[in-house]
């Protein structure tokens, strides 16, 4: 039975959504095509009807993951973003969190097309932070951009370092609390 174009597109979106979640949970090398497809409810044989390679899917999931986080933070101000991002909830739910915190180290070992998508996503988050800084702080655009880069780097780093500790570690929480306190902008 032939699948309609609409159904094929819906199937592709389902695979992308599930792959985004599974890659964040297991890393790019921690899960294969068969398990990705099974997780999405399909057989592995249909993979190449939707994607030219695993790298192609990885690249698409990076873009999807960035869109997810941008959608979640769209209406937040910078302090709300920091409280959401540099949190135990974000730390403990790698599969539902930001792809930057879950996969940046993996991305460094991927093809350039994946790195381009990561760079684009990083730039979009820097722009989000810079836009908030422009509304509320004085200083040159260059200074605000530098500050935004620092805020994003510390936010991502806080989650990464906290995840490197044992789940019930005092240090894991201490890292998040210290970085969050350092990052919050005084009103």
UniProtKB/TrEMBL annotation:
Domain HTH tetR-type: 9-69
Keywords assigned by UniProt, alphabetized: DNA-binding, Transcription, Transcription regulation
Pfam families documented for this protein: TetR_N (PF00440)
DNA-binding residues (ranges): 32-51
Keyword Transcription appears in the UniProt entry: yes
Keyword Transcription assigned: yes
Highest taxon of the lineage: Bacteria
Single GO term (MF): DNA binding
InterPro entries linked to this entry: Homeodomain-like_sf (IPR009057), HTH_TetR (IPR001647), Tet_transcr_reg_TetR-rel_C_sf (IPR036271)
Gene3D superfamilies in the record: Homeodomain-like, Tetracycline Repressor, domain 2
Protein name: TetR/AcrR family transcriptional regulator
Gene source species: Acinetobacter guerrae
């Amino acid at each position: 039975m032939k699948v309609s174009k609409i159904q094929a597109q819906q199937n592709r979106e389902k695979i992308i959504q599930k792959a985004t979640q599974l890659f964040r949970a297991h890393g790019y090398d921690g899960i294969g095509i068969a398990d990705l497809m099974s997780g999405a409810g399909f057989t592995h044989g249909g993979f190449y009807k939707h994607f030219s390679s695993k790298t192609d899917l990885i690249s698409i999931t990076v873009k999807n993951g960035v869109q997810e986080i941008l959608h979640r933070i769209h209406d937040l101000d910078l302090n709300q973003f920091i409280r959401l991002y540099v949190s135990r909830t974000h730390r403990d739910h790698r599969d539902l969190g930001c792809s930057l915190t879950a996969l940046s180290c993996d991305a460094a070992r991927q093809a350039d097309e994946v790195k381009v998508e990561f760079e684009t996503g990083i730039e979009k988050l820097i722009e989000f932070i810079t836009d908030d800084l422009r509304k509320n702080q004085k200083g040159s655009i260059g200074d605000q951009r530098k500050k935004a880069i620092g805020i994003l780097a510390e936010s991502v780093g806080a989650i990464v370092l906290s995840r490197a500790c044992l789940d019930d570690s005092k240090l894991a929480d201490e890292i998040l609390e210290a970085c969050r306190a350092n990052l919050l902008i005084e009103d």
